[in-house]
Amino acid sequence: MPTVRPCRATHQCTLKKRQTTMPLFDLIDDGVVLLPTELKSDPKEKLMTIYVGIGELAASGEPGTVIKTLALGSCVAVAIFSKKQPVAGLIHVQLPESSINKELAAKRPGAFADVGIPLLLAEMEKLGCKPADMVVKLAGGAQVMDPNSTFNIGKRNYLAVKKALWANRLFPASEEVGGEISRTVTLTVGANDLLIHTPGYENRKI
Predict the structure, then answer these.
(1) Which of these is catalytic: 7, 13, 75, 129?
(2) pTM for the model
(3) Strand 88-93 and strand 76-82: pairing?
């Protein structure tokens, strides 16, 4: 089971299984599937959806815009919301430190917690969101395809994310991390909830 931590905010969440034959994992994020960032619009609702792939990030100041990343395994999604205005951003962190693969870090810095998170913070500030107004929420960091905890990538990612946030004096308001499940996360600009979906389980909000 995953760990749900309220941090400074009060949040109670219990995962409940649904009666379903759906597989536990739709996609695995550990370099097996790379989803490019895509923009899709719904002509009925006139809403824009931004799909954030592995090692990518996105931020928006357009109310109602949906930002989504699919099938987090050991990766960690960092969602940042503004307390005072409709601004939000999301990054899909794949690995803890850029020193692991400097070539990849040069091509796709968002893949790494230590360099990707500062980039997301910079994008948020460009949209007028000051660090003092930022609310941070985390999801992911599961133990996937590592039954003996040989690599502990999920835990290492989580700790690296926390370290990068601490360096900028930011602390998660809430989080759902760990366990052995896949998570798809969705946020809507202007609504400061992070929706978490796992195949076979009820949806959660943190």
Answers:
(1) 75
(2) 0.80
(3) antiparallel
